[in-house]
Amino acid sequence: MKVLLANPRGFCAGVNMAIECLEACVREFGPDIYVYHEIVHNRHVVDRFASQGVKFIDRIEEVPSGAILLYSAHGVSPAIRELARSRDLRSIDATCPLVTKVHIEAIKYAKAGYNIILIGHEGHDEVIGTMGEAPESITLVESPEDVDRLTFTPEQKLAYLTQTTLSVEEAGQVIRRLKERFPGIESPPKEDICYATTNRQHAVRQLIEKVDLLLVLGSQNSSNSRRLMEIGLAMGKRAYLIDGQHELQADWFDGINSVLVTAGASAPEVVVQECLDYLSEQFGATVEEVTTREEHVTFPLPKELRQMMKAGQI
Ligand code: SF4
């Protein structure tokens, strides 16, 4: 068996920053730390921190007054920040700067009187956070059919934004429909689907034709990981999204000579390596890593964490 190992894959700069942020807090404060939602959408990562005592919560009311609260990489709405302030929580914001960029765009367009069409998946943490910046001004769409149902007139001021982890292809279809219906619609100068999402999808598109099957390491609730699996399926290949080697089934590989392995932006490299070990041991797989794009993006730790460290609070 031949394995092509996609590069880039796995952790992006936003996930790296969020995880380093939580690690620094645990190291210095001890594990009595609260995180609003999952720090990143990955079972392995969340379980590792939970086993150290970190508490992942879905309601700010669960956090005791004065405790340390981290906002996850997906961002939060202003209402959540306000609630945390009112409970006197010491909040640290691990939102990815590329998500913050979308929040800032939403605020800017809303203040300028635009109706904002947000292309994204209903219920996703990032979408909830972005919509919370200007709930009166934002309408969510997921598909070209949703665009057909919009009732804005061409004269109204319209702008669109996108969730950072969408399929580039699918978002493109929705944007095309938006432009057909509303030719004057505006958008930010730099697109919102982030570099990491784009690059991981690009790698799968480049390499999938050479293999029989696609394995994506990532959790089921990880948006960007699901999109990678869907690209494989859409291109006529068998494709599986798995949290780790323990989910692999030997019969998936009956008659399979070549496999493409990649990982979503929140999946750690250790789970990739465990899969490669399994494929080598079970099927004598040889691994060739193929780089389709270089990545050199890094983000600093959140300002409030750096200030706490400087002040000797941690
Ligand atoms: S996937 Fe993109 S937007 Fe999300 S955390 Fe990573 S770099 Fe940021």
From TrEMBL:
<feature type="binding site">
    <location>
        <position position="124"/>
    </location>
    <ligand>
        <name>(2E)-4-hydroxy-3-methylbut-2-enyl diphosphate</name>
    </ligand>
</feature>
<feature type="binding site">
    <location>
        <position position="74"/>
    </location>
    <ligand>
        <name>(2E)-4-hydroxy-3-methylbut-2-enyl diphosphate</name>
    </ligand>
</feature>
<keyword id="KW-0560">Oxidoreductase</keyword>
<feature type="binding site">
    <location>
        <position position="124"/>
    </location>
    <ligand>
        <name>dimethylallyl diphosphate</name>
    </ligand>
</feature>
<feature type="binding site">
    <location>
        <position position="41"/>
    </location>
    <ligand>
        <name>(2E)-4-hydroxy-3-methylbut-2-enyl diphosphate</name>
    </ligand>
</feature>
<feature type="binding site">
    <location>
        <position position="224"/>
    </location>
    <ligand>
        <name>isopentenyl diphosphate</name>
    </ligand>
</feature>
<feature type="binding site">
    <location>
        <position position="266"/>
    </location>
    <ligand>
        <name>isopentenyl diphosphate</name>
    </ligand>
</feature>
<dbReference type="GO" id="GO:0050992">
    <property type="term" value="P:dimethylallyl diphosphate biosynthetic process"/>
</dbReference>
<feature type="binding site">
    <location>
        <position position="124"/>
    </location>
    <ligand>
        <name>isopentenyl diphosphate</name>
    </ligand>
</feature>
<feature type="binding site">
    <location>
        <position position="224"/>
    </location>
    <ligand>
        <name>dimethylallyl diphosphate</name>
    </ligand>
</feature>
<keyword id="KW-0004">4Fe-4S</keyword>
<feature type="binding site">
    <location>
        <position position="222"/>
    </location>
    <ligand>
        <name>dimethylallyl diphosphate</name>
    </ligand>
</feature>
<comment type="pathway">
    <text>Isoprenoid biosynthesis; isopentenyl diphosphate biosynthesis via DXP pathway; isopentenyl diphosphate from 1-deoxy-D-xylulose 5-phosphate: step 6/6.</text>
</comment>
<protein>
    <recommendedName>
        <fullName>4-hydroxy-3-methylbut-2-enyl diphosphate reductase</fullName>
        <ecNumber>1.17.7.4</ecNumber>
    </recommendedName>
</protein>
<feature type="binding site">
    <location>
        <position position="266"/>
    </location>
    <ligand>
        <name>(2E)-4-hydroxy-3-methylbut-2-enyl diphosphate</name>
    </ligand>
</feature>
<keyword id="KW-0479">Metal-binding</keyword>
<feature type="binding site">
    <location>
        <position position="223"/>
    </location>
    <ligand>
        <name>isopentenyl diphosphate</name>
    </ligand>
</feature>
<feature type="binding site">
    <location>
        <position position="12"/>
    </location>
    <ligand>
        <name>[4Fe-4S] cluster</name>
    </ligand>
</feature>
<feature type="binding site">
    <location>
        <position position="41"/>
    </location>
    <ligand>
        <name>dimethylallyl diphosphate</name>
    </ligand>
</feature>
<dbReference type="GO" id="GO:0016114">
    <property type="term" value="P:terpenoid biosynthetic process"/>
</dbReference>
<feature type="binding site">
    <location>
        <position position="96"/>
    </location>
    <ligand>
        <name>[4Fe-4S] cluster</name>
    </ligand>
</feature>
<comment type="similarity">
    <text>Belongs to the IspH family.</text>
</comment>
<feature type="binding site">
    <location>
        <position position="74"/>
    </location>
    <ligand>
        <name>isopentenyl diphosphate</name>
    </ligand>
</feature>
<keyword id="KW-0408">Iron</keyword>
<feature type="binding site">
    <location>
        <position position="224"/>
    </location>
    <ligand>
        <name>(2E)-4-hydroxy-3-methylbut-2-enyl diphosphate</name>
    </ligand>
</feature>
<dbReference type="InterPro" id="IPR003451">
    <property type="entry name" value="LytB/IspH"/>
</dbReference>
<feature type="binding site">
    <location>
        <position position="194"/>
    </location>
    <ligand>
        <name>[4Fe-4S] cluster</name>
    </ligand>
</feature>
<keyword id="KW-0414">Isoprene biosynthesis</keyword>
<dbReference type="Pfam" id="PF02401">
    <property type="entry name" value="LYTB"/>
</dbReference>
<comment type="pathway">
    <text>Isoprenoid biosynthesis; dimethylallyl diphosphate biosynthesis; dimethylallyl diphosphate from (2E)-4-hydroxy-3-methylbutenyl diphosphate: step 1/1.</text>
</comment>
<feature type="binding site">
    <location>
        <position position="223"/>
    </location>
    <ligand>
        <name>dimethylallyl diphosphate</name>
    </ligand>
</feature>
<feature type="binding site">
    <location>
        <position position="266"/>
    </location>
    <ligand>
        <name>dimethylallyl diphosphate</name>
    </ligand>
</feature>
<dbReference type="GO" id="GO:0019288">
    <property type="term" value="P:isopentenyl diphosphate biosynthetic process, methylerythritol 4-phosphate pathway"/>
</dbReference>
<feature type="binding site">
    <location>
        <position position="222"/>
    </location>
    <ligand>
        <name>(2E)-4-hydroxy-3-methylbut-2-enyl diphosphate</name>
    </ligand>
</feature>
<comment type="function">
    <text>Catalyzes the conversion of 1-hydroxy-2-methyl-2-(E)-butenyl 4-diphosphate (HMBPP) into a mixture of isopentenyl diphosphate (IPP) and dimethylallyl diphosphate (DMAPP). Acts in the terminal step of the DOXP/MEP pathway for isoprenoid precursor biosynthesis.</text>
</comment>
<dbReference type="GO" id="GO:0051539">
    <property type="term" value="F:4 iron, 4 sulfur cluster binding"/>
</dbReference>
<dbReference type="GO" id="GO:0046872">
    <property type="term" value="F:metal ion binding"/>
</dbReference>
<feature type="binding site">
    <location>
        <position position="41"/>
    </location>
    <ligand>
        <name>isopentenyl diphosphate</name>
    </ligand>
</feature>
<dbReference type="GO" id="GO:0051745">
    <property type="term" value="F:4-hydroxy-3-methylbut-2-enyl diphosphate reductase activity"/>
</dbReference>
<feature type="binding site">
    <location>
        <position position="74"/>
    </location>
    <ligand>
        <name>dimethylallyl diphosphate</name>
    </ligand>
</feature>
<feature type="active site" description="Proton donor">
    <location>
        <position position="126"/>
    </location>
</feature>
<feature type="binding site">
    <location>
        <position position="223"/>
    </location>
    <ligand>
        <name>(2E)-4-hydroxy-3-methylbut-2-enyl diphosphate</name>
    </ligand>
</feature>
